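FAQ: What does the model actually see?

It sees only this:
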Amino acid sequence: MEHQLYPLKFHPILKEKIWGGEKLQTLLGKASHLPNIGESWEISDVEDDTSVVINGRLKDYTLKQLLKTYREQLLGKKNYETFGDNFPLLIKFIDAKDDLSIQLHPNDELAEKRHGTFGKTEMWYVMQAEADAKLIIGFNQEMTSEKYQKHLENKTLTDILNFETVKSGDGFFIEVGRIHAIGAGVLLAEIQQTSDITYRVYDWDRVDVHGNARELHNDMAIDAFNFNLTDDFRLHYDNIKNRSNNMVSCPYFTTNVLHVTESILKLNTKDSFFIYMCVEGEALIETENASEFIKQGETLLLPAAIETYKISSNNAKLLEVYV
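And it is asked to produce this:
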């Protein structure tokens, strides 16, 4: 059956956001006439937002149809036993022209109980950032539920939040329950569990064109918080060329950075699909029966059944993701 599967590309699902900008079009080549595109969902199995194949023999198939047809050949045996006909990851590019709301995500247990969905552990890889652009992750001091709520009521929440100045190549890991926000001027790649559950706690007192504020979820958020003070969210990783350098290994996904300057032969020994997000340059990915170019801002899904393949470039950076 392996001959039937090949490197898959999908139509990006573009999302207008109150905080979105133009970089997804101007820097990453996403075609859209809409202003304020904040997100490009590259691979999605979220209900009503399922990805559709753009290339090759399986063009116009949805990700859901592929999962039902190819099962472990697409996901890997172990993943198919765990996830069945559900794709475990949601892959995005995000352009923040303005600050995103301050938010957090519930864990698996809470998300399942309240929403019948996965929790949302995620990571960010900064592709481009304006001078002095920042992200918010965690608190800058010891925190309790009471202290947090007092700051929320007094509109002094930003006094207790941890701001991180960022540049291209920075990586961050956001565990469930950790308060966070992407700041204005940041373009990034996001890898997360398949979940669209966000608890928004503060939105900078913003209103839309009709004068309406966005909904906040403070009642639900308070149970979902992890108030522990940690500073282990900034990722430290090697950048050895033509080798997979590990950034994140967690139960939900593994992400490596691959800086390609020649041809690399890859062997899939992980019993998993592989996702390649091109964050710089362009590369050629060749399997026995197909080849596909991938350039900055594009994403490719390599089914688990593909055991050997080659990645070639004179200068490209890829995020390599598997479960």
